[in-house]
């Protein structure tokens, strides 16, 4: 989950966690060292006092003790060992009784036990004050690390944020756009800006080559297509046998279809991403009637039954070239991949369907069939697998959606949902 956080937040979290671990280890080390030193010093002090007390007792003198220290021994009835301290081992020990705590030093001499008991109140107060200081220092260091981490993250991320805003908001693809690396120092951010400059430079060259290519295509292809279309019109005006007249009609339709494809490709290439979908003046019914007449004849010649149905009335207007391109490609595919049965062009409100009783498309290939140069395992003809890719590109630019489903017992259904907004 940490890798999904913003980079600045990850810097703050890492900085705070590092301080938390270091300060925690340091604080625990202080507490442990203080406790160890306390045991050592108090044990040494009580050992010296025990030597003095035993010396005084051996001379028949009362033990010299301060007000916080008491002496117990098994040899003196007036100083018998209390039950609380009866089980303490030889040497230094700490005994806690409710809210009271004592240092106990025990010495055994010839089956006799001698104890020095000292109250811990003063030591505990000092120790608690030290622990409070350590805890306060630990919390302040963590809070300071968080604040310092925020400042450092903001400082570190400032050039990255500025670079991202420049790449996002400036027109970097314009040939006159200044390089980004000149505004940054020779560090990692500067190297990143240089990489952006290099990538954007290559992209500018690629776009310029594409622009020149599309300009050449629009000029070089439209002229011969116009000549072919004009020649077909002149031939249709001449009295020709039925077979030759059909061939001229096919040439004319092919030229018209090629002109639509050229216009479609040029429009898709020249469109900017921020442009809205292109509207038009053609209705769905008019384009469908034209395409039904265009593809109905070759389907019937192949022995297929072609049906043109209207399940709903759609009164919106669409871009004629784009709509013809989408519908024509879907009907062409249905013709190629249907050997017997029926092909249907079904109009509905806000869209249309192309249904066939052909080979069908396996479920695992239905998503990939719209990718460029993908033809599937049952490909036919000499196509390159660009027809459905072009259909999806047109639908994406126009705000339309296309989906595919299986028909039972066999066949496929392509559903195109049109966006009414021009």
From TrEMBL:
Annotated catalysed reactions: ATP + protein L-histidine = ADP + protein N-phospho-L-histidine
Main location per the UniProt record: membrane
Enzyme class: transferase
A GO MF term: phosphorelay sensor kinase activity
EC number: 2.7.13.3
Limits of the HAMP domain: 154-208
Transmembrane segments: 12-37
Annotated protein name in UniProt: histidine kinase
